[in-house]
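We modelled the chain as a single entity of 477 amino acids. Its sequence is:
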Amino acid sequence: MEHGHRVWLSRLLLLGLACLPRDRLVDRESELQRLVMEGIQAHISSPLEGVREVGMIVGEAYMNALHKSDHALKFDHTPSEEGAELVKLTRPVDDQERELKDLISKRALSSCNPVAVTTPTVVVEKSHTWEGVVHSSVCSDTDSDDEDLVPYEMGEDPDSSVPTPPRYLRACMKALLARDNPSLLQVALQSLESLVRSSSPTSLQEVAVELVKMLLHLSDAYSFDDFSALRLKALVAITACSPSIVAPYLTDQFYAPNFTLGQRVDILEVLSLAATELSLVATPLTSSVHVPPSPTARGRRPWEVLVQERLKAKTRVISKGATTPKAPSTPSRFSPVAGLFFFPLMLRFDSPVNTLDLLGEDCLVLGSLLHTLGVVMHAASHAPLVPKMAVSLMDFVWNLRYHRSTYVRRGVLFALCMTMEVTPSHFLASSSLETAVAETMQWLQDLCVKEPDEECRMLAHSTLQLAMQSFKASTMP
């Protein structure tokens, strides 16, 4: 919420409190006290001074209205100009009406014609619930003198100017630590991804792990609209540009005890997106260099050019072949580092951690882990490590196939579907996996009939079709 909206809501709350009768407050005293205490705590914990001041002023007014005693709630703070306006609204309605009448009279005298001054009319309407709501209509004539005033250019305010984006990684890291400067922090987050992708591999490797650690523990203290997206893009860029250094760190920190469940899910999402990006084929840049014509073409005489054009017009061309050259084959960027993204995630899933219980109450994280393993398996397609990864993943998910959580069962089926899709058919039919695949197909057939979740049934049917197609392809001569 913007600060201006917060101030307007605070004014409405104070005006409503001033107009509300005492007996209506007593009827819901406990509920109002609970809500006011939660609001005071939320505002005081904010790093912005204006938000804290609004919370203290509104909290004082409501708590003192609920408890008419000598022990009044009083915060030790000096109100600003904006806070002083809010304090004026905490006074009784009669004082506000008297001040409003004086203000209307002064403005009417200054704005209307001195010869014929129209007396302002003030109407006070009272109902059974709200008393003292003041409605005023003021006579004001259009002042033609304002049209002669020339606007004065104040220039750019240095305090409200946007900070200059950092140009180097270390300067950006320093800006991320500027918790007392929200504008600089936002600019650093916006420019971090481009800095990471444009930096040299050597300079990035020096600060990659430290930068990832800062981003994982960075909190959205100022409620930026695009904070989560910018942070995620920066983490994916660092992981994709330095996978051999960042991937082992992320897989190790996934089981570390000093991380929350949200941070662990963020780690899995970063690994999935980085693996997908590394598996994509990099498109080569199109050359814009002008190729000059051959010497023979430049040396032709006019009649030779005319003959060639007539022959070309009368020649019937059946096929010209490929009009564009075939894209050159490029090695996979993900194949050398696929094992770093995959095997460490399955290494300690059953190890006891104080803040993580994958086999217990944290089953949502377990489902995200299975989905990440499936994405990494699909990204490693055609890699030499795929057979070994397929054996490990099938052993890993086999013990989780009857899990009570539907989300975990979906993750199991997704991982099996990716395994059947990318694993070579001759390897699935080999002696090392023939028994496991046959048992898996039997379980999938039962699942298509007995599984209560519709999405699980659809995934089981798709995985079963892929397995059957692989077996048919392996048996064909």
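As a brief sanity check on the tokenised model: Residues 90 and 151 are 37 Å apart (CA to CA). The chain has a mean pLDDT of 80.
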